[in-house]
DNA sequence: TTAAACTTTCAAAAATAAATGAAAGTTTAT
DNA sequence: ATAAACTTTCATTTATTTTTGAAAGTTTAA
């Protein structure tokens, strides 16, 4: 396999993986492209490489920056903006997990707490509902806390987790 | 909040969460409904509660069974089939993580291995590509292995993880 | 065997999500 | 101040995903 083919395969695969995980294809592809670039890339070049429109590139770059995993860069004597991705994988994973926790897990926990707190102990059906949602609340809360603790280590958290866990 | 309202809120929330994680809304809603039912539910009742068509119910129940998190049940003297969800949360999480590993992570690893193995050491660009994809391969492999190890514990793996990690 | 009771399949329709591109907005150099 | 160089926005279009529902398939009881 030659370089160009490998590069393309990587970008496509990362894009497909993105959509399986609730991130849109282009967003994941842009991120993939930036990950493997040794220098900052202009919007023009991104549009060109991925064959996407200016609007699409702009909106997805904004989203990536909102996630904190892509940065703007300015070059002296250049009017254009350039973009780079967070390349440290520990840092990348930490940022993604924090953001998803904030956007998805926390709101879900709020609902779980609400619905598990209803005054409902008449029928078996109601008792079961309260019991299940309470368990779910506890489980998700615990999982969210563990994730938080793990990513607090930042540097090499994965390696540290391996070490801790293999003991 | 009364029971019916809480139940509905739970099903809707779980459905929305599902779509953010690459699982379709109806599939997640059916799962939610079964999770909080204290007894097995017929397809008719699922269609009725969620206001969905027969085909939709059938296909998503099949998908849930393929994931191994919903089971068919037969009642004596009843022609119809009934369905229940895996209600043990440890077990549920283990099954989901195993299935996603098999379906998504393993194939991604295969591609990462391929593209990181290209003979390409001429330009800086190529060297950087190989270096980044290699790092990514190592990272994802390690994460996949940790997940595997953690879920091997099955019963109470989350609690065990908390204990191990807080030490 | 046949017919009733049920489930599955899949082509077509509907709903949802993403992409386009032109106009509006912003920044910088002169 | 102005115009060139660039980015963002958003109504519309396009692509993708999901849902429908009717026909085909299956199972069971008589």
Automatic annotation (TrEMBL), chains A, B:
<comment type="similarity">
    <text>Belongs to the GbsR family.</text>
</comment>
<dbReference type="InterPro" id="IPR052362">
    <property type="entry name" value="HTH-GbsR_regulator"/>
</dbReference>
<keyword id="KW-0805">Transcription regulation</keyword>
<dbReference type="Pfam" id="PF12802">
    <property type="entry name" value="MarR_2"/>
</dbReference>
<keyword id="KW-0804">Transcription</keyword>
<dbReference type="InterPro" id="IPR011991">
    <property type="entry name" value="ArsR-like_HTH"/>
</dbReference>
<feature type="domain" description="HTH marR-type">
    <location>
        <begin position="26"/>
        <end position="73"/>
    </location>
</feature>
<dbReference type="InterPro" id="IPR036390">
    <property type="entry name" value="WH_DNA-bd_sf"/>
</dbReference>
<dbReference type="InterPro" id="IPR026282">
    <property type="entry name" value="MJ1563"/>
</dbReference>
<dbReference type="InterPro" id="IPR000835">
    <property type="entry name" value="HTH_MarR-typ"/>
</dbReference>
<dbReference type="GO" id="GO:0003700">
    <property type="term" value="F:DNA-binding transcription factor activity"/>
</dbReference>
<protein>
    <recommendedName>
        <fullName>HTH-type transcriptional regulator</fullName>
    </recommendedName>
</protein>
<keyword id="KW-0238">DNA-binding</keyword>
<dbReference type="InterPro" id="IPR036388">
    <property type="entry name" value="WH-like_DNA-bd_sf"/>
</dbReference>
<dbReference type="GO" id="GO:0003677">
    <property type="term" value="F:DNA binding"/>
</dbReference>
């Amino acid at each position: 396999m030659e370089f160009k083919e490998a590069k393309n395969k990587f970008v496509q695969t990362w894009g497909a993986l993105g959509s399986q995980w609730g991130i849109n294809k282009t967003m994941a592809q842009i991120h993939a492209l930036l990950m493997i670039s040794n220098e900052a890339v202009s919007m023009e070049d991104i549009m060109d490489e991925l064959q996407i429109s200016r609007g699409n590139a702009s909106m997805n770059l904004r989203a990536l920056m909102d996630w904190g995993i892509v940065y703007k860069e300015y070059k002296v004597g250049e009017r254009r903006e350039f973009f780079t991705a967070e390349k440290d994988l520990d840092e990348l994973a930490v940022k993604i997990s924090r953001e998803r926790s904030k956007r998805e897990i926390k709101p879900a926990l709020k609902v779980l707490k609400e619905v598990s707190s209803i005054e409902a102990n008449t029928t078996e059906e109601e008792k079961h509902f309260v019991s299940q949602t309470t368990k779910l609340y506890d489980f998700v809360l615990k999982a969210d806390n563990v994730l938080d603790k793990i990513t607090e280590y930042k540097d090499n958290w994965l390696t540290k987790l391996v070490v801790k866990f293999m003991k």
